[in-house]
Every structure is written in C-alpha cells, then in structure tokens.
Amino acid sequence: MSSELRDLYQEIILDHNRSPRNFRAMGNPDRKVEAFNPLCGDHYTIYLAVDGGVITDVSFEGTGCAISKASASIMSSMVKGKTVEQAEALFGVFHRLVTGENVSEDEMTAVGKLAAFANVSEFPARVKCASLAWHTLHAAVTTGADTVSTE
Amino acid sequence: MTTTTPEAVGRSRPAKAPAVFDAAAARKDFPILGTLVRGKPLVYLDNAATTQKPRQVTAALVGYYETSNSNVHRGVHRLSETATRLYEGARAHVAEFIGAAEPAEIIFVRGTTEAINLVCHSWGRPNVAAGDEVIISGLEHHSNIVPWQRLCEEKGARLKVIPMNDRGELLLDEYERLFSDRTRIVAVNHVSNALGTINPVAEMAASAHARGVPLLVDGAQGLPHLGVDVRALGCDFYAFSGHKMYAPMGIGVLFGRKELLSKMPPYQSGGDMIKSVTFDRTIYNDPPHLFEAGTPNVAGAVGLDAAVAYLGGAGQDAIRRHEEEVLEYATGRLGDMEGLRIYGTAREKAGVISFTMEGVHPHDVGTILDTEGVAVRTGHHCAQPIMERFGIPATVRASFGLYNVKADVDALVAALGKVRSVFR
Q1: Out of B363, B372, B421, whose CB is closest to A40?
Q2: Is A126 on the interface with B (CB under 8 A)?
Q3: CB contact B421 to A (< 8 Å)
Q4: Which residues does residue B349 pair with via DSSP β-bridges, in sequence order?
Q5: CB atoms closer than 10 angstroms to residue B352
Q6: Distances (CA, A) of B229 to A119, B107, B147
Q7: pLDDT in tens, B369-388
Q8: Beta strands, E only, B251-373
Q9: Residue B146 domain boundaries
Q10: Does A41 touch chain B (CB under 8 A)?
Q11: Residue B14: is its pLDDT beyond 70?
Q12: Closest chain B C-alpha to A53 CA, distance in angstroms
C-alpha cells in the first residue's frame, strides 16, 4: 500500500469507522442538527447536551464514508466534558490541519487523536468529509440552524 | 513558425471509416493519457462526466484562434467571413453526422442542460398549461428532471415518471399507461449516465407520436457511445454536449425538427437573433439563429466539428463494438469480485458500470483508486432518484470511452484489490 494511503486511512480512522463511538440517538438533546454532504451522500444527525457552557454529552447517527464517520466518532469522544469554547478552539486547529494550513507543534500535541486527519489535506476532495461533523457541531453551538450542508 | 490555415482547421474525413477500431493507436491522439497521476499512469474511467480531447480537437481550437478568430454573421472583412464559414460549416457537419434534415435544425448551445432548458422555455411554456402532463423517466439525470419540474410548477402541470425494474430497465407497459389526453411531451435519455441502460427511444418515440405527443431525447450519454440518426430514431428534439464526445467544454447541440422550431418563440434575446430592431418593434431572425442570441462559441463549434470528424473517421460502429467488448470484459471481471455489487444490469447497456463494495463507502473507494491513478466518479451521479430507487446513497461509477482498453479494466480491478487490503 502506498504510504500516502496508509497516512490517510490510519488504523485509528479505520477503527472508528468500524466501531464508531457514541453512535446512537439521544433522548431530549439540547441541540439536534442534521448534516449533509450532498456530493457523496453523507448524512448524519448530531445530538448535543449542553449544561452551563459544558458539553455534557454528544452522540451521532447516520451513514457516510470512513473519513466522515471516523471524524464524527473521534470528535464525539474528544469534546465530551469540554466547554463550548474549548470545543470551538479544537475545531479551529482541526480546520487548519485538514486544509493544510500551519499548525504549531504545541497545537498538534493538544489535538491528540485529531492528528490522524493531517493527511486529509493531501486529498482536497475529502476535506469536507473530515470536517462535516465539526461544522455541524459549530453550527449547533453558535446558530439556531437545524441542518448543515457542505454545498 | 507554422500555423494552420483556416481551410485546414476543423476537419478531414477519410472516405470510408475502418471496420475495426484501433484503440491502441487512438490512445496516441490523447496526450493526457500519457500523464501520471500521483506517480501512477492515468487510467481515466470517468468518461461519462467528461471525455478527454484528442490532438485533432485541440489543434482545431488553437488553429482557429491563431488564424481565423473573428466574430460571426457581422463583418464584411475576410476573417469574419472565415469564422462564419467555419461556424456554419460545423453546423452543417453536425447536421450530417446526426442525420438531421438540414443544418437549420442544429442549434448551438452550451451543452445538454441548456438544450433542455431551451426546449422547456420555448416549446414548453407555450404548449404546457394547467392540468397538462409531462412524462419523464426514473432514469433521468437531474438536467432532464429539474427543468421539467420547474415548468410543471410554473404551469400547474403534472410530472409523471416511467418506473424501472431492478435491472434498471424502463417498464414500457407502464410507460404506455402514463399517457392521457393531457400528455404534452415525453423527455427521456438515450443512455442512463448512472446505470448505462440503453433506452428503446425509437419505440418510445413511436408510442408518443401515435398519440400526437413529441419526444425529447437527452443524448448526452447516447451520442458518444452509440451515435445517432435522429430521423431513424424519430425523435423531435435531441440534446447533447460536446465535451462528452471528445469536443471542448461549453459547446453543445439541440437538434429540433424544423416543424417544431419554426413555431417556437426565442429563448434568450439580443444580437444575432434579430433581423431588425427599432424601439417600436423587433423582427426576429429564423431558426437556428433565433435561438442563438449573442456571440456564439465559435471556437467550441470548430472544436466540435473536429470531434465529429474524428468520430466519423474512426467509425462509430467500430467504436461501439470496441466499447462493448471492453464493457463486457469489465462486467465479467468486476462481477467475479467478492462483495462487489453491480447496479444496472440492463440487457442493453453502454459505457457505464456502477457498483458498490460491501463495507466500504464509494467515496473511500474513489480516493483509494485515485492513489492508484484510476479516475472514477463516486456519488449519486446527478441522478439522486435512481440512488433512491435502489436504496443506496451513492455508487462508484467506471465509465468508458473509445480509448479505454482491457488493461484499464485490469488496473481498476487491481486498484479495487487495494481497497480490500485497506478495509480488511
């Protein structure tokens, strides 16, 4: 397998695709937002419970490619227990990471598992897959939108 | 420096097309096929999206701009005469190529989408009223759905859809039953871009005509693979894009029977579509110019002319036989792969294999194939109702052109093996 490919489909991504974490509907969520990537048919619903500015629970369900599903799964496991501001800051770094912008070593350390998505920047067509869940989370905490679409 | 003279621009057609198509030789006409993608030789299997261009076409474009560029139907100067001759020559050659009765039945547009929009606007609006019905098929590309949907919404008309079976073949009995005394037009594609089904459009046109209903064919995928004789087909309109038949982007054709075109009001308005203008009144030009407001894509028409000459020289029957052979080989090899499911198994197919791989999203398949240099399309192929019909969000689509050979299929199969090794 080419190293380019191994870098994109890292074991952690394949693992979260096979066994997505927090992959369930949530009863009485504070926010529920649908996410679409019309170009490839990715379709997820993301649920949030927020208490006093802290994300107390995140879950998601739906279908899509390995990159989008693993990204939603890893995001859900990372932002649970974080404040909305901390989650937004992670999104900021993640966005720069997948679009190939400069990310400092300290930031790279801080984002932990998200580093697995660094090579997505080599595949511009897949950036939307990787960031779909994050854009949806961002919309959920900053706007009243019920749906998010990449197009 | 040598430049191509205006007279040499455009075409050179051998007297008789060969019986057998030499794909290996033809590949040399397409420089892009010799390039590398991500360090691997390009295996281009996205021809239903757009085809690559042979040197003959790009040379015609460059030759036109370097020796003949001018605006058409205007100047008395020599260049304008040359450009007009090339542009109208392209129209005549296209008319001959598709069996139109005369060049005036050929309207140059941007592509299939614009051609269908033109018909919706200039034929549909005057002829479709509240309570009327338009028949399309479940196999259509969005470009042959949405314009009709909008027309029906505007007029309070009803859109009826011909269903298909699990092989992706239209149900002709159901088609017959959809007609009523309110049916105004039928619009159907020649070949499905998502599944490859060849629709029996001649038969369908005869059914429509028996009821006095005209029929439009979306030929975007039909013409490149099958060629067309519009009179033998019996269609009233035939729309196609240059860029899917080895010509440049931005040029396409609407064929319309003269009898219909002569009763249609203009599409866009402006220069070239008029005979005279005063502030009180405008006298319109005749078809086809009536439908070609503004400066046309002359270079595109010259490029299309060169593509028509290329296809005519190679022989569309010979190309078709070659493509059938490659498609059959691909169907066999992909069909042998475990966990691979082909969507669209019509008895009459051309150019396309749509499939999914168990446990792997088509988008991931597409990315991994790309790292092997294999270009395919993944997604809904602008035909979401078809995906819905089969209960899937997307497929991987390999689509073939005249330059594809069995080795391309082998490369696809090998790359699909890589997909398996990533998603064990």
Answers
A1: B363
A2: yes
A3: yes
A4: B197
A5: 28
A6: 50, 16, 25
A7: 999 999 999 988 888 888 88
A8: 252-256, 274-277, 282-284, 340-343, 352-357
A9: 78-312
A10: yes
A11: no
A12: 36
Question: Is B100 in the same domain as B211?
Answer: yes
Contact flag B361-A40 (C-beta cutoff 8 Å): yes
CATH number at residue B288: 3.40.640.10
Which residue in A1, A4, A66 is closest to B361 by CB distance? A66
Which of B3-17, B159-173, B299-313 is predicted with the least confidence, judged by mean pLDDT? B3-17
Q: What percent of chain B has pLDDT over 70?
A: 96
Q: Where are the domains of chain A?
A: 3-149
ipTM for the predicted complex:
0.89
Q: Does B143 fall in a domain?
A: yes
Which tokens go with A102? Answer: 């400069």
Question: What φ, ψ does residue B114 adopt, rounded to 5°?
Answer: -65, -35
Contacts with B378 from chain A: Cβ below 8 Å = 40
The answer on B320 and B308 residing in a single domain is: no
Task: Tell me: do B308 and B201 sit in the same domain.
Answer: yes
Residue of B nearest to A120 (CA): B367
- Give CA–CA dist B198/B168, Å, rounded: 10
Residue pLDDT, tens place only, A44-84 = 999 999 999 999 999 999 999 999 999 999 999 999 999 99
For the stretch A85-131, pLDDT in tens is: 999 999 999 999 999 999 999 998 888 899 999 999 989 889 999 99
A3-149: in CATH 3.90.1010.10:
yes
Confidence of residue A1 (pLDDT cuts 50, 70, 90): low
What pLDDT is recorded for position B15? 56
Q: Rounded distance, CA B81 to CA B153, Å?
A: 45
- Helix (H) or strand (E) holding B239, with range, is strand B237-241
Which of B120, B152, B235, B382 is flagged as catalytic? B382
Scanning B22-61 for CB atoms below 8 A from A yields 38
Question: A82 CA to chain B: closest CA distance, Å?
Answer: 31
A10 vs chain B: nearest CA distance in angstroms?
Answer: 9
For residues B288 and B191, membership in a common domain is answered with yes
Q: Do B92 and B165 share a domain, yes or no? A: yes
Distance to chain B for A106, nearest Cα, Å: 30
User: What phi, psi does A57 have (nearest 5°)?
Assistant: -155, 145
Q: Give me chain B's average pLDDT, please.
A: 94
Number of domains chain B contains: 2
Same domain, B191 and B253: yes
Please indicate whether residue B120 is annotated as part of the active site: no
Chain mean position to CA A88: 11
